[in-house]
Amino acid sequence: MAEVTGIAPPTREAERPLTGFTRTEANSYRTKAINNLTVDSTQGEWHSVKGGLRPDQDRSRTPSEYISYGVLFNPQTRTWLKVVPPEVTDTPDQEKLEKTLRRSVDQQRAALQVAGLPDLASQIREVEVVDMDGKKVYGFTSPHIGPSLEYILYKTTKSWRGRVKNPDAADFFSQVYSMAADQAERLYLEFGIWTSDPSPGNILLRQDENGIHVVLIDFSNRLQEYEYLYQRVSKERYGPEGYINKIKSLLQTNVRQLHRRFYQYCEKRGIPFIRDPQEIETNIDNSVAVVNARKSLQEATTAPSTSHE
Ligand SMILES: Nc1ncnc2c1ncn2[C@@H]1O[C@H](COP(=O)(O)OP(=O)(O)OP(=O)(O)O)[C@@H](O)[C@H]1O
Ligand SMILES: [Mg+2]
Asked: What pLDDT is attached to residue 234?
């Protein structure tokens, strides 16, 4: 039986031929079923590893509450596929789930840009998948980015809920979470993308010649809400200096709210959550809202007077 792990496969597995996987393990997820799918006209064996119908489904709730997106992995190409679950085809939930997943594709590309990985961003593809349980479904593929923090924490603490005890390990995870929060701040402040679930499963690490990159994934959850950025603050009411400060303080409040989930996840696992206030200040200074506000003040002061003398 062939198998492969999501991180570097042990030599024993790596020496095996890269075909005919009957079971896979990627980022600790194991094969639930193998699906022979045509993904954008290319046929392949995709291992369903997560999602779809939840086993504890409570049918009295609406389908979107007990059905989640399907997550599949192709061990031959080391590609991930996330799909609208076929169970919702032709139900009122199909449109809602598809819309959110479609929107998440550009959000994922932005997250890879912010992570300093534009090459990976350009490899994210929207696809049509046939036939998934006899249905044609919408999805997107992404190359294997690297191990999740969830997986590394499991390896480090030997438990799915374990707390990090070793001070060096705690320091490492703390730096990773700080980098992830920095990216989430920039995604919000520069792109209007809100990271609502920074769980360790949604933070990946990728090693390349430049070192270790931290990558945020999974923008498809339903709490995701797009909020745009303070055109409503009145220049007249606050005056030039006060106007910029008011926008900054609103952004500060939202960044603090953004940090709340980061803090909660860190707290659970014994990881210190530390953000450098100077970094946050810089991110806020570079935000769309502040940059635009400065520009509009400048335009107002340099514009030729329109008053008639
Ligand atoms: N490109 C990728 N590279 C590495 N691992 C990935 C990639 N895409 C997904 N994964 C793995 O699959 C897991 C599930 O993916 P994802 O977080 O997108 O779905 P989900 O949590 O099931 O989504 P939702 O909560 O929206 O239903 C991730 O935690 C990660 O371990
Ligand atoms: Mg996830």
From this structure: 79
